[in-house]
Amino acid sequence: MKRLNWLLLMPVALAGAFIAMVAIELGRNNSDLQHGVDTAALPSTREGLPAPGLDLTPLGQTPLLTRADLEAGELVIVNFWASWCPPCRAEHPNLTALADAGVPLYGVNYRDRINQALSFLDELGNPFDRLGRDEQARNGTDWGVIAMPETFFVDGDGVVVLHFRGPITQRALEAQIRPALAEAGYELPELAGPAPGG
Fold first, then answer.
1. Residue whose C-alpha is closest to residue 120's, from 141, 100, 149
2. HSE-up (13 A, CA, CB side) for residue 72
3. What residues contact residue 156 under an 8 Å CB cut-off, 6+ apart?
4. Alpha-carbon span 99 to 161, nearest angstrom
5. Rounded CA separation 68/168 (Å)
6. How do residues 14-71 score in pLDDT, each as one tens digit?
7. Residue 161 and residue 111: Cα distance in Å, rounded?
């Protein structure tokens, strides 16, 4: 009777272990996705670091956003948005609800035409306490912005606590943003009710 050569079984065992690990990870990702966690999100290079400078131009009558506004002693939201961005339109009611709840909300209009940006705000409302245009995307590049919308939560010392890519929906608020901010020691106020479209 021939003896079994264990070395011949090694590749089969390794392949089986690899397949089992992939299946477990896929199951975890599927569970996370069902609970609203974006498992494909790219990590931010800004979190934990001082927010970059801002060199913006004015947009409408809203006061111009400057780097000094990010060091006012409280958590603020900096939202990069554009009128040509459908997810920006989708998240707008939730941003408005956060602003109405008292969270300082600052906007950076990204690579947009002035008339289209102002029409967007005229149609949906302007929730921004401070605002500026980043027509050439220089500020966005400095902040690590790669797609619209992107939102930064900046503490009172001007340090980025959380960088969130994608629209701020109710699901994202509850499943990702609130837990991440709570872990960093911050809390967003409860909103008056679910915002439409989010």
1. 149
2. 15
3. 71, 72, 73, 74, 75
4. 18
5. 25
6. 777 667 665 665 555 444 444 444 544 556 667 989 999 999 999 999 999 999 999 9
7. 25
**CA 47, 81, 103 angle in degrees (round to 5)?**
65
Residue whose pair of structure tokens reads 């006012």 in the numeric block = 72
Report the alpha-carbon distance of residue 28 to residue 127 in Å, rounded.
Answer: 37
Residue 107 to residue 187: CA distance in whole angstroms: 20
pLDDT in tens, 84-135: 999 999 999 999 999 999 999 999 999 999 999 999 999 999 999 999 999 9
Cβ neighbours of 23 (radius 10 Å): 10
Question: What one-letter code names the amino acid at 98?
Answer: L
Strand order in the sheet with 160-165: 130-134, 105-110, 76-81, 150-154, 160-165
